[in-house]
UniProtKB/TrEMBL annotation:
GO terms for molecular function: oxidoreductase activity. Transmembrane segments: none annotated. InterPro entries: Flavin_Rdtase-like_dom (IPR002563), NADH-dep_flavin_reductase (IPR050268), Split_barrel_FMN-bd (IPR012349). It comes from the Bacteria. This is Flavin reductase family protein. The lineage of its organism: Bacteria, Bacillati, Bacillota, Bacilli, Bacillales.
Length: 170
C-alpha cells in the first residue's frame, strides 16, 4: 500500500471518529490576538489539570503558540458553527467576527463558548508534521449549553436520542 493510500485510509478512519471542536487563542508578543479551530484536543491529567492539542507546522501562528506562555481553549457550543468555520478559514480577520476580551491571564477569550480553559504551556513535543502542546489549566469557565460535535465533516449538537439512551440505562 502506498503512502498516499495509507494517508487516505487514515483520514477516512479518523473522520469517522466523532470529536468535539475547539478554538485555541493566544496573544502575540505585540498584543495581537491569534486563534484557530482545532479538533485534536484531549485531557491529559486530573492532578495537575492538564490538556493537550496539536498544531500543524504550516499554520502561520504556530510560533506564537509554541513560544508563548499562555493560551485559551474554547470548547465550542453547538450554536457556534459559523465561528468554528471562520477560525478555520485562512486570511480573515477572525476576531472582528466575534465578541471577545482579554482575560486576567492575557489570553483572548471569546464569548459564548461551552467552556473556556485558560492554560499555561507546560511542554511542546514535536510529532511528525505537528507539534503537541500540553497545557496546565489555570482557570475554567463553563456556560451550560450544548457542546458542538464534529463527525464526517459535519458540525452540530449531540443528538437528543443519545441523552435518551443514557437516561434509559441509568
Amino acid at each position: 500500500m502506498s503512502k498516499q493510500e495509507k494517508q487516505q485510509l487514515f483520514k477516512e478512519a479518523l473522520g469517522n471518529y466523532p470529536t468535539g471542536v475547539t478554538i485555541v487563542t493566544a496573544m502575540t508578543e505585540e498584543g495581537t490576538p491569534v486563534g484557530l479551530t482545532v479538533n485534536s484536543f484531549a485531557s491529559v491529567s486530573l492532578d495537575p489539570l492538564m490538556i493537550l492539542w496539536s498544531i500543524d507546522h504550516r499554520v502561520s501562528s504556530k510560533d506564537t503558540f509554541i513560544k508563548g506562555e499562555k493560551f485559551a481553549v474554547h470548547i465550542l457550543g453547538a450554536d457556534q458553527v459559523e465561528l468554528c468555520k471562520t477560525f478555520a478559514t485562512p486570511n480573515v480577520d477572525r476576531f472582528s467576527t466575534c465578541k471577545w476580551s482579554t482575560s486576567e491571564h492575557n489570553t483572548p477569550v471569546i464569548e459564548g463558548a461551552f467552556a473556556v480553559l485558560q492554560c499555561k504551556l507546560h511542554q511542546a513535543v514535536e510529532a511528525g508534521d505537528h507539534t503537541i502542546l500540553i497545557g496546565k489549566v489555570l482557570d475554567i469557565d463553563i456556560e451550560r449549553k450544548d457542546p458542538m460535535l464534529y463527525h464526517r465533516r459535519n458540525f452540530g449538537a449531540i443528538p437528543a436520542e443519545f441523552y435518551t439512551e443514557i437516561e434509559k440505562n441509568k
